[in-house]
Amino acid sequence: MKEPAISTNSALSNTFSSTASGTHDEASVRTSDTPPQPLREAVEASMQRYFEHLDGGETSDLYAMVMAEVEAPLLSSVLTYTDGNQTRAAAVLGLNRGTLRKKLKHYGLLEGDAP
Known about the structure:
52% of the residues lie in helices and 9% in strands. By secondary structure, it is mostly helical. The model is unreliable at 1-11 and 15-26 (pLDDT under 50).
């Protein structure tokens, strides 16, 4: 599996650095200087800023890069929400527990594991 080139596109990481809040029905994102907005709109705005930052430059593996930026904090947040209970976290995420453990290991989120 090819690792996404996150470090070479740090602008994407910066565009996703906001705090998620909201209900199950409509996730929202709030930064320190903006009102909450639906998660979908926040992603669209972040992607627009990312492409503007590229200023015509090339990028590759964008899908993997975005998924890595979103998936790791999602998994971490759900584990915190479930007090580290992987069975409950898997249920919350709608994943098989084995799949969750594989993802946790991939991102270095299992105790004693590194990415």
